[in-house]
Design a protein that fits this description.
The structure holds 2 protein chains of 2 kinds.
Chain A: H1 2-18, E1 24-25, H2 26-36, H3 45-58, E2 61-67, E3 73-79, H4 81-109
Antiparallel strand pairs in A: 1-3, 2-3
Helix pairs in contact in A: 1-4
Chain B: H1 4-11, H2 19-42, H3 47-56, H4 61-71, H5 89-106, H6 108-137, E1 148-155, E2 162-163, H7 167-176, E3 180-194, E4 200-207, H8 211-215, E5 221-222, E6 237-240, H9 242-249, E7 259-262, E8 265-272, E9 286-289, E10 303-308, H10 314-331, E11 339-345, H11 346-351, H12 355-386, H13 388-396, H14 401-437, H15 452-478, H16 482-487, H17 497-533, E12 543-549, H18 558-574, E13 580-584, E14 595-596, E15 598-600, E16 614-619, H19 623-627, E17 631-634, E18 648-652, H20 653-659, E19 669-672, E20 683-689, E21 705-708, E22 716-722, H21 731-741, E23 747-752, H22 753-760, H23 762-796, H24 798-806, H25 811-840, H26 856-882, H27 886-891
Parallel strand pairs in B: 4-9, 6-8, 16-21, 18-20
Antiparallel strand pairs in B: 1-2, 1-10, 1-11, 3-4, 3-7, 3-10, 5-8, 6-9, 7-8, 12-22, 12-23, 13-22, 14-16, 15-19, 17-20, 18-21, 19-20
Classes of the chains: A alpha+beta, B alpha+beta.
């Protein structure tokens, strides 16, 4: 249960982080999440795309169809200026949150 | 391999989002699945396993649909082709509105012209209707106003009009009738109010005690009259208007029971009326209790006001009044039995006179709107031709005709809605303008405004307009012949003959309506010019007039009055710049104060005939000189014609011609009233003067006679001053002289004669101006209409014209061809319009002065004018047609 909530709350942050450096398409994003989390986090079509569309609607990321030579047409998402601000804010918020959780859980176990 | 898109589409079937967006999402998700599939296949999965795994990504497809629904804007589905599917009414209307507004936006030129035309038409209609509504339709501002009626005496011999009542009449009638719940009588009067900074003449009325309870309005402050306050012994009481209270008494809340001096007598204020109570005249500011004396049959000076019993009718009232009149005639043994009483509803009495003019204006402005509609319908028809392709494609794709018709109508209704939005501000401005321009004597002027009824009328008119100008083009379009219009390649297809006929018919209608308006306006203008060219009977330039009322308390004998008048004339004549000064109890052009009958010695009136009642005017000796009335025979009055010297009279030209035909009137004897008035002395006719209009410029010359003011003293008179200077500039010096003689003498109605003349024709001028404006507007719209149709027809016929020219037609042949087309339409329109005008102008009969409703010169002139305008309007298209290059015209086919 906790797993699901965490995933939902942090999903936006994950996606924004992944498109921070360069634009990526949906499949790439889902693969990266799965790979970098060593299979702990997994997004399928039904969970990933509505999220992408929501972020796009908010103006944090921008999707664009790109056709590269020898490749299929794909939709690449890049971080917008506003998305960058949101990412910074969410990232520090997340770090504070994790640190707080850590402080509590460590104290208990110590 | 599996068709990913099909799988995704299948799972998103229930999702209502914009089709393009949906396609995009399907594409993107399909890419994802394809990537997944390829990757799995690149590993060691079989195609079946890979497919299954890829589809597993969609496993939570309900979740996908739900999430997408949350993110994406869901839309009501719009068929790709408008009108192809039957759906909800509301959604359809919404869709039509959006489509309509898009198509209006796409044609800003057309939309602007249509909206401006409509806004003008609707604005003008709203403005005029708000006047009609406030003046004619809205009930009078009194409780149950339809029960209120005015009562007069009336002679059974139709020649004489309504006459006032005498006190005995009123009391008889009041005590015997059973139709009226309550009855009152009033007479208007000018009061001298002294006690303010300068003496003032205030318009007021003597009223009986039931006055306020009959009309149903009570004072806002204090009380109305008590039942016995109109008897001779009662203390004198007065109710004042809100305006008087504010202006002269500083809105003092403790004004009740205070005393004011009116006509040099003391009156106790018992009440203050609420603002906006304007009866019997809108200038009335004082209502003083009448003191009904005994049972005198004469003088006749009061008007009756009654409130009918609930359910009683004016007819019943009439039969009862006839009965009472008969009874009274028996009772007083009257030899004169040709009179009775009659009543007319108060609303009719107040607004009856302006009704014809307002109705004519309302009809006129509706005509203007109809012409505007015809023009817009023509524009829409032209556009329908251009849109034929669009509509054919939609029909071909399955749009039903009724649905298409509805869509086109929605578009025209949308257009008229915009017209209303733009027209209402115009209407408000127009009402301000109307109120500012309208003559002061237009009744209920101050009540004019826009209310719910006016708004309702406007919306109704606008909806009707939308249907009128939208229906014909829409019907035409939906009846399109698909085969033909789709076949005709890229070029806009030729105008169908039905549509061309419709366009021509619209122009004919426009011309007919404008002709009616122009005939109406022409008659009005001619009548007004005639009215203005009427000679008032004197030279009106350089004359200043004002009105003096001598308080009875101070001037209580004929000697005092006469002496005052003599001194005032001496003083005023001595003012620098005064050429002549005179006094008269009546003043042209429309201030007639006294009329009476007369007899000529040796010429008794035939048995049974009613004696003519004619103006009788008392004047000072120099009155004729001051006014500039020509002396035709004999002499004028002079200083020797005074009280005690032989009585003299001067008659006017009409009286001399009518009653002394073929003989000289000078030296004959004449007296006031009929044979029964034996106390009146015989007077010698000493002179004959030219006719002067005292009852309005429009009234035919009538007999009148003059008496010296010194031999028939009156306490009120107009001072007439002639000067070579600017007359208005003389007013202060004269006022100074009047107050030097008597500092309490109130002066009223200071005006130049030029202004009085202009004011006397203010109503005809106003309606002539308005009708003229509407007619001019109609003429412009109609010429634009005919220009549009002819010029469009030239464009359509370019090919034909090219052939004609290739076959040897000359430029002027072609011009003639085009102009002939326009003139033919104009002639049909003119013929129909002339016939309709003959029937319609009868409505205007009461508005015309010495002009027949079928005045040939106006009918012919207007007809010719319209044909000429039609020729002019065709001129430009004709020239364009004559310059068609046959090579170009033929090649472009």
């Amino acid at each position: 249960m906790l797993d699901r909530e965490l995933k939902k709350g942090s999903a936006e942050l994950l996606i924004l982080s992944l498109v921070e450096v360069r634009p990526r398409h949906g499949y790439e994003i889902s693969k990266l999440i799965e790979a970098r989390s060593d299979g702990v986090l997994k997004f399928n079509v039904a969970s990933l795309y509505p999220l992408l569309y929501r972020l796009e609607k908010r103006g944090w990321i921008l999707g664009r169809w790109v056709e590269k030579a020898g490749q299929r047409r794909r939709r690449y998402y890049r971080l917008t200026r506003e998305g960058r601000k949101v990412l910074a804010a969410q990232r520090s918020g997340w770090e504070e949150f994790v640190a707080a959780i850590n402080r509590i859980t460590r104290a208990e176990s110590a | 391999m599996v068709d990913w898109k099909e799988e995704i589409r299948h799972r998103l079937a229930g999702l209502n989002i914009e089709p393009c967006r949906k396609a995009e999402i399907v594409d993107e998700l399909a890419e994802h699945l394809e990537d997944r599939y390829s990757e799995l296949l690149g590993g060691d999965a079989t195609p079946e396993e890979a497919t299954r795994a890829a589809l597993a990504e969609l496993s939570e497809s309900e979740l996908l649909a739900r999430e997408l629904r949350r993110v994406e804007r869901t839309v009501t589905r719009e068929p790709v082709v408008l009108g192809t599917r039957r759906k909800h009414m509301i959604a359809d209307i919404w869709q039509d509105l959006r489509y309509g507004s898009r198509s209006l936006r796409k044609n800003p030129g057309f939309t602007a012209i249509a909206v401006i035309t409509l806004a003008l038409g609707i604005g003008a209609n709203t403005a005029i209707f708000s006047v009609v509504n406030s003046v004619l339709l809205r009930p009078l501002p009194y409780p149950e106003p339809d029960r209120l009626a005015m009562v007069y005496g009336i002679s059974l011999q139709a020649a004489q009009g309504k006459t006032p009542l005498c006190e005995a009449d009123f009391l008889d009638w009041k005590s015997q009738n059973q139709v009226f719940e309550s009855l009152a009588a009033f007479s208007t009067n000018r009061f001298n109010y002294t006690g303010g900074e300068t003496p003032q003449q205030i318009e007021g009325a003597w009223v009986t005690s039931d006055f306020f309870s009959t009309i149903g309005v009570q004072p806002a402050l204090g009380r109305g009259f008590l039942p016995d306050e109109d008897t001779p012994k009662a203390p004198q009481t007065v109710v004042i208007s809100d305006g008087f209270w504010r202006r002269y008494l500083g809105s003092n809340p403790n004004v009740i029971d205070q005393q004011i001096t009116l006509n040099a007598r003391t009156f106790t204020i018992i009440g203050v009326m609420p603002p906006g109570f304007l009866f019997p005249e809108k200038e009335t500011e004082l209502w003083a209790a009448e003191r009904l004396a005994a049972t005198r049959r004469g003088p006749y000076y009061m008007w009756g006001l009654g409130r009918l019993n609930r359910g009683a009718t004016l007819e019943r009232a009439q039969s009862e009044m006839d009965m009472i009149a008969r009874r009274v005639q028996d009772q007083i043994n009257s030899p004169n039995r040709d009179w009775t009483w009659t009543s007319v509803s108060l609303a009719e009495r107040i607004v009856g006179k302006v009704r014809p003019a307002l109705l004519v204006l309302l009809v006129a402005v509706l005509f203007v709107l109809l012409i505007a509609c015809a023009n817009i319908a023509n524009l829409l028809l032209a556009r329908a031709t251009a849109r034929e392709k669009e509509i054919s494609v939609r029909i071909a794709l399955g749009a039903s005709r009724p649905r298409l018709l509805r869509q086109l109508l929605t578009e025209s209704l949308l257009l008229s809605a915009i017209g209303v939005a733009a027209g209402l501000p115009l209407a408000i401005w127009g009402i301000h303008l109307l109120v500012a321009l309208s003559p002061d004597d237009l009744p209920r002027l101050q009540e004019i405004n826009i209310d719910g009824w006016v708004l309702g009328f406007t919306l109704l008119v606008a909806a009707a307009c939308g249907l009128i100008f939208g229906l014909a083009p829409a019907l035409q379009s939906s009846r399109l012949n698909l085969n033909e219009s789709l076949k005709e390649g890229g070029r806009g297809s030729a105008d169908s003959s039905g549509r061309r006929r419709l366009r021509s018919a619209l122009v004919v209608v426009e011309i007919a309506f404008s002709l009616m308006l122009l005939v109406g306006a022409g008659l009005m203008v001619k009548s007004f010019l005639k009215l203005q060219s009427v000679s008032p009977g004197f030279n009106p330039e350089h004359i200043l007039t004002m009105h003096l009322t001598l308080p009875r308390a101070k001037y209580d004998s004929d000697e005092k009055i006469t002496s005052y008048y003599r001194q005032i004339i001496d003083r005023v004549t001595a003012v620098r710049g005064v050429e002549a000064a005179g006094l008269s109890i009546s003043l042209p052009p429309n201030n007639l104060e006294v009329s009476d009958s007369f007899s000529i010695e040796g010429k008794p009136w035939p048995q049974g005939a009613s004696e003519p009642i004619v103006p009788i005017v008392s004047t000072s000796p120099d009155y004729f000189t001051a006014l500039g009335v020509p002396l035709l025979q004999g002499r004028g009055f002079n200083a020797t014609d005074q009280e005690g010297s032989p009585p003299v009279v001067i008659i006017n030209q009409t009286l001399a011609e009518r009653y002394f035909a073929g003989e000289t009137a000078i030296g004959k004897r004449f007296k006031i009233g009929g044979a029964d008035r034996t106390r009146n002395p015989w007077m010698e006719i000493v002179g004959v003067v030219g006719d002067v209009k005292y009852s309005g410029l429009e009234v035919k010359p009538e007999p009148a006679y003059y008496m010296p003011l010194a031999q028939s003293a009156w306490r009120a008179a107009y001072l007439v001053v002639r000067t070579p200077l600017n007359p208005a500039g003389l007013a202060p010096a004269i006022r100074e002289q009047i107050w030097a003689l008597d500092k309490d003498m109130p002066i009223a109605k200071v005006a130049t004669m030029d202004r009085l003349l202009a004011e006397s024709v203010a109503q005809p001028r106003f309606r002539t101006l308005l009708l003229g404006i509407f007619a001019a507007l109609a003429l412009v719209l109609a010429s634009v209409g005919i220009y549009g149709v002819i010029s469009y027809s030239v464009t359509q016929r370019t090919h034909e014209i090219g052939i004609r020219m290739a076959l040897g037609a000359q430029a002027h042949d072609v011009s003639k061809l085009v102009i002939r087309e326009g003139v033919a339409l104009a002639l049909i329109g003119v013929t129909i319009g002339l016939a309709a005008s003959l029937a319609l102008t009868r409505l205007m009969e009461s508005l015309l002065f010495e002009v027949s409703t079928t005045d040939q010169s106006i009918f012919a002139g207007v007809g010719a004018l319209l044909v000429a305008v039609a020729v002019l309007a065709c001129w430009i298209p004709a020239r364009r047609a004559s310059r068609v290059d046959p090579m170009v015209a033929l090649r472009c086919e």
